[in-house]
Design a protein that fits this description.
By secondary structure, the chain is mostly helical. It is built from nine helices and no strands.
Length: about 260
């Protein structure tokens, strides 16, 4: 839903740019732009709702797998009712096949296992957020570079004033699109997410060096990680799919080395 909302906003920009370039406004364009704007906001609301629900579920499952705090029957029933059927079909929630664990820890239920979960989650978040930071950074650089090239060529070329005005309006629309899609803000937020995840990963690694892992400390680290994720932007599934195999190989090697 988050991606659809972004594409809806991009569609509005394309329609606006088309009007500027053609100097004509078909009646269908304002109607379509209005529908796209409404659908964009609606998709954004759905995205926020599903994201909040998913993060609540992730917290419950992390505590269940780490400390053995089982969800109540009411929580489990609500989860199954609220999660879309398409998601359930792609998951193992309705299956007894648990051969592919979510975490790599081999420890029994307890504080140490919980801290290991936090460390692993923070490590994945760090690298996925870094990847999204570079994607956003490159996207911003390309957009601003193209915009400034158009402005430079327009100012230093002998072209029709009307054409120059149109190009300037399109460039302005592109810059407004950057603000509307929060591309600069997302770039900075992903960098902040990676740095915060690194900090939590280091705290978890330090806690694992203690002779005895304290349950209170494990709960603090778990809450710190999830609170940090709750205030950060979503990590798209496609970046996880692209990097999953490589990151899993590196993580398995890292864990196997005993570090």
């Amino acid at each position: 839903w988050w991606g659809i909302a972004l594409f809806m906003k991009l569609g509005i920009f394309m329609m606006t740019a088309g009007i500027m370039l053609t100097q004509s406004t078909p009646i269908i364009v304002p109607i379509a732009a209005t529908i796209f704007a409404f659908m964009s906001e609606l998709c954004g609301i759905y995205s926020g709702w599903y994201l909040a629900m998913g993060r609540r579920l992730r917290r419950s499952l992390d505590f269940q797998d780490g400390l053995g705090w089982d969800m109540s029957n009411e929580q489990y029933a609500d989860m199954l009712v609220n999660i879309p059927k398409s998601v359930l079909n792609r998951s193992s929630l309705e299956s007894d096949d648990k051969t592919d664990p979510y975490f790599s820890s081999k420890e029994g239920v307890g504080p140490k296992r919980t801290i290991q979960h936090v460390r692993e989650s923070a490590w994945w978040t760090k690298h996925l957020s870094k990847s999204m930071f570079y994607v956003m950074l490159i996207t911003n650089i390309i957009i601003f570079a193209i915009s400034f090239i158009f402005i430079f060529v327009t100012l230093n070329s002998r072209i029709d004033p009307n054409t120059a005005s149109t190009v300037s309006e399109v460039v302005l629309a592109v810059l407004v699109l950057v603000v509307s899609l929060e591309l600069l803000r997302l770039c900075l937020q992903y960098a902040g997410t990676a740095n915060a995840a690194l900090d939590i990963e280091q705290k978890a690694a330090t806690a694992l060096t203690d002779t005895i892992q304290n349950e209170k400390r494990a709960i603090q680290l778990m809450h710190e990680y999830h609170i940090n994720r709750a205030t950060r932007p979503i990590i798209p599934n496609w970046i996880w799919s692209m990097r999953r195999r490589r990151l899993q190989q590196v993580w398995d090697t890292y864990m196997a080395s005993g570090e």
